[in-house]
Design brief:
single chain, alpha/beta, Spore Coat Polysaccharide Biosynthesis Protein SpsA, Chain A, UDP N-Acetylglucosamine Acyltransferase, domain 1, 2 domains, seven-stranded mixed beta sheet, six-stranded parallel beta sheet, 6 helices, 29% strand, binds guanosine-5'-diphosphate-alpha-D-mannose, binds magnesium ion
Length: 351
């Protein structure tokens, strides 16, 4: 069985972080986002190949994962000639495949039991099965109403205020039968959410919902991207390098922590980082590979991407900082700031 990861979006809502780093590979702690999805799919022994459906900066993604040797699964890349939308991308990537497919949106963090979803899909001979998750406000998602027998009754992408009739949304995880793809036009943009799913309902095909109450987040905005780190520190999503670690600082043996530096857990310090005397790394901070934090600087609740430098006496609080940024001495980076790669803040700047 094959899985398709839809990883072609531009990640506009995550700008400036996604200007040089496509959304599917933004780092979550020390590894690219898609690695979490690939690890989850590897738990399904039947899945022998993961197809990455790409169009935005595909080379960057291929360079990182290669053929998947280090990931324990075979990877294949399919690059659309132009963005085909979610439905068009699935049809394009599924050319030549006739067997049941698993599809993931390339920005959802979840631990859903994929095997159980596939088993339900097969047991009820479904044309399509969609995973649902409950959320407080469905307006930014695809709202999905179900019938008592577990079939999908209504699918409304990005519902307006008056259309919110339940709290279950499309979690961006599907099991699909390629035999239903003939309705997807070739070579034009086509949305699985706005066209394919509604057509299954109209034609009364077996379109099932699988509700998962476990952890779920779409990392597609800076707030959510930041939140997933806090959740992993708190053990709400027990995967990745911090899983099961408790609340103490987690420091790579290849990081350098000078005497007189203070680390307050939970925090994470990656390979090659250097924390100088008098500097403080406070709770909920992620210090990426090769980051240098100079004397008396203080970082709290922030995610700092690799190879940035935080100057002497600077403070960075509840912020996101891209790669190769340089925060000058005594600069102050305030809560909610999102600084792109190579940002330079001159000494004493307040941002
Ligand atoms: N290959 C390819 N081509 N991929 C695409 C394209 C395209 O033209 N357009 C979007 N994608 C990928 C994105 O990279 C992302 O991984 C996924 O498809 C979904 O696109 P988003 O832009 O993130 O959509 P969304 O978050 O607004 O809404 C979708 O996800 C929600 C759950 O997070 C919908 O599927 C909603 O129904 C759902 O609730
Ligand atoms: Mg999304």
């Amino acid at each position: 069985m094959k899985a398709i990861l839809l990883a072609g979006g531009k990640g506009t809502r995550l700008r400036p972080l996604t200007i040089h780093t496509p959304k599917p590979i933004v780092p979550i702690f020390d590894r690219p986002f898609l690695q979490y999805q690939i690890d989850l799919l590897r738990e399904v022994p039947e899945i022998d190949e993961v197809i990455l459906s790409l169009n935005y900066q595909p080379r960057r993604i291929e360079e990182i994962f290669g053929e998947g040797a280090g990931l324990g699964v075979r990877l294949r890349y399919v690059v659309e000639p132009s963005p085909l939308g979610t439905g068009g991308a699935i049809r394009f990537a599924a050319q030549g495949i006739t067997d049941t497919l698993v599809v993931f949106n390339g920005d959802v963090m979840t631990a859903v039991d994929v095997k159980a979803v596939v088993a339900m899909h097969r047991a009820r001979n479904a044309a399509a099965t969609i995973v649902l998750t409950p959320v407080d406000n469905p307006s930014a998602y695809g709202l999905v109403e179900t019938a008592p027998d577990g079939r999908v009754r209504r699918f409304i992408e990005k519902p307006g205020a008056g259309e919110i009739t339940c709290n279950t949304i499309n979690a961006g995880i599907y099991v699909l039968e390629p035999s239903t793809f003939d309705r997807i036009p070739k070579d034009v943009s086509y949305s699985i959410e706005r066209a394919y799913f509604p057509s299954l309902i109209e034609q009364d095909e077996t379109f099932l919902a699988y509700v998962d109450e476990g952890y779920w987040i779409d990392i597609g905005t800076p707030e959510k991207y930041h939140q997933v780190h806090r959740d992993m520190f708190d053990g709400r999503f027990a995967r990745g390098p911090f899983a099961g670690h408790g609340r103490a600082p987690l420091v790579s043996p290849e990081a350098r922590i000078d005497d007189g530096a203070t680390l307050e857990g939970p925090c994470f310090i990656d390979v090659g980082a250097h924390i100088r005397p008098g500097a403080t790394i406070g709770p909920y901070s992620v210090i990426g590979r090769g980051v240098v934090v100079e004397e008396d600087a203080a970082i709290h609740g922030s995610v700092i991407w690799p190879n940035s430098r935080i100057g002497r006496d600077a403070t960075v609080t509840d912020a996101l900082v891209g790669r190769h940024a340089h925060i000058g001495r005594n600069a102050v980076v305030s809560p909610g700031a999102v600084l792109g790669d190579k940002t330079v803040l001159t000494d004493y700047t307040k941002a």
